[in-house]
UniProtKB/TrEMBL annotation:
Organism: Lactobacillus equicursoris
Cofactor(s) listed in the protein's UniProt record: Mn(2+)
Origin: domain of life: Bacteria
Domain (Creatinase N-terminal) ranges: 8-138
Keywords assigned by UniProt, alphabetized: Aminopeptidase, Hydrolase, Manganese, Metal-binding, Protease
PROSITE patterns cross-referenced by the UniProt entry: PROLINE_PEPTIDASE
InterPro entries (alphabetical): Creatin/AminoP/Spt16_N, Creatinase/aminopeptidase-like, Creatinase_N, Pept_M24, Peptidase_M24B, Peptidase_M24B_aminopep-P_CS
CDD domains referenced in this protein's UniProt entry, alphabetically: APP-like (cd01092)
Gene3D superfamilies the record matches: Creatinase/methionine aminopeptidase superfamily, Creatinase/prolidase N-terminal domain
Record domain Peptidase M24: where: 148-346
The name this protein goes by in its record: Aminopeptidase P family protein
GO molecular function, one term: aminopeptidase activity
Family to which this protein belongs: Belongs to the peptidase M24B family.
Amino acid sequence: MGEFRDSLKKLIAWLKEERIDLAYVADPTSIAYLTGYASWTEERVMALLVSREEAALLFAPAINEGELRFFAWPGAVAFYQDGESPWKKIKEAIAAWPAQTWALEGGSLSLAWYRALQAEFPGSEMEADITDFLKKARLRKSPEEVAKLQAAGAQADLAIEIGIAALRSGISEGELAAEIQYQLRAEPSFPTIVQIGENAANVSALPGEGRLAPGDMVIFDLGTMKNGYASDVSRTVGYGEVSAEQRQIYETVRQAQQAAADGARPGMTAGEVDELARRVIREAGYGQYFPHRLGHGIGMQVHEAPGIQPGSDTVLEAGMCFSIEPGIYVPGVAGVRIEDCGVLTEKGFEPFTHFSKELQILPIKK
């Protein structure tokens, strides 16, 4: 067992503690977290099976066999061909394992696949769920994970620079998003969001046909994947001269974001951190225009636990990584969002992105 990742050792320890024979892990991100192997098999079955007797099996389509030859995996592997029943092949592969009690990753296993698995093991109990265990295991990031998140954050800063440099009168939201992706040449962690003018007052909208004109506020919300870890950042800029109220809204959001970033500490609840920013916006008279949570966790996926939201009693710990992204969205006036993801340390919140948060007013370009 010494060759397995620490994350996989913890899962085996959990199985022993819960007296469960084996775990069936179905989500590709969970498999990558536990093994280091990342692959996307579309409609084909891929799974990690883990025994409390300190054994593990990567089960994959036969088309992955060549790829897995180059992957240093200390456990067993098994494959199935197109046209074969993956469930029968799984049964053959773990025939020597105790398999009376199972823990499944319920949120990642369809009802049809659950029934097919159950049909091959009709006497087994499959009631336990490992989803919460895996979610909690990923809450605190290791120094190696934090370094990967920092590298992804540097890419996101560059993407904001590219987007701002591309601003010119008449360019559409879709064209701006495409320009960012083309110049950045990096895998996005989610579809790039660019919101111009009236559309910026919508909380979250994919790029459309809105075109840039003087006096518009522009929201960039984007991220990249690097070494299996995500980044996510938002900045808002003005194009040409903007109104006094637009400036006031921007400054309120900036102060709210700073209040939460400066005040977050281990031992606080996620709800308390949310309130640090929400209070600033509420006292400025814009409380009704901040309709979403303050933030979300980040790691191998762009949205993970913990949620930084009103009423959450999740106690924050050093090593947790999350976003701080307050926003104000006033129809007919402006939409502003400022976001950084970062890691919570004993000293406070340390962001992964560092692009300036002072209001930038870009000159008009034809």
